[in-house]
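Lecture 7 notes: from sequence to structure.

We start with a single chain of 323 residues. Read the sequence below before looking at the structure.
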Amino acid sequence: MSSRYRATCALTFVLLLQGCVHPGVRRSLRSGLPVTDASPQILAVYEPWFGHPKHMSVGYSSQDPVTIRKQMNQAKALGISGFVVDWYGDREPFIDHSYAVVQTIAAEKNFHVAMMYDETEGSSGEATEDTLADFEKFNETYLSSNASGRQAYLTYNDRPVIFIFPKEGHTDWNRVRAATEHWNPAPLLIYEDQSTPFIGAFDGFYAWINPGKQGWAADGSNWGEQYLRDFYRKMQSKYPDKIAVGAAWAGFDDSRASWSLDRHISQRCGKTFKGTMRLWPQYYTADHPLPFLLIETWNDYEEGTAIERGLAKCTPGEQRSGQ
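Now the structure, written as tokens:
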């Protein structure tokens, strides 16, 4: 049994122990997934803005080294090997400082870190210039040979991996790609799974929380199974030469966010997390492995996706119905 396969099973099992306690789910996890060497490296999206006054209080600061060390220890125990950390460049100094602390501690903890670049919402032209400046700063500050914690940065085939979270879509990614090709080594750019005119600029795509073609259901029952199946099929048939980053999520609920759109995916007593974790082996084998699986998220409490404190507990009635 591969170590990554064991980690995938362990992650789901431990989270269910922390939260929903449905015994049938526990037993099914022990039976596990088919043994495969295609098991991906498990990463988790990490939000570094807690402690800033414009975000909700979660009881800690994302700049507290003690908290970050504890989070990394907990994540490693669950089989997670790295955090993918949101980063905004000079637009968010608080988040930039948080990222610096996370990368430094990741090196200390033998843990990985990667940047998820939140695209600027500037107008066409302005957005591209902002992105070029942000990427150059990131390269000099966090990827240079003397950068603190540089050895912890996530690589694939010896190239640093950069995730991109799109916003208004005004960035000319062809220009950004041309600029980053001069880095040594040049990074791999991984874009969210959505329509873009810059397919050629990206080395891969990652799946993101999505209820599927039926849209957001009032009861949260559209948990994204068909979306993920479509993503894996598309990556194999349409983009076989690009990096596929699978995804798993426990649920979604943005009712506590200041930007709420009343969107909801039910945790279904842990079944949503279990279901999203168990889809990738149906599409990837040892001959064609899935490189990464991205847990979405470690600690986004504002959109109800955090797994840091386990899965939501269920009432007896919910346990019987699975809702």
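Residues 203 and 241 are 8 Å apart (CA to CA). Keep this in mind for problem set 3.
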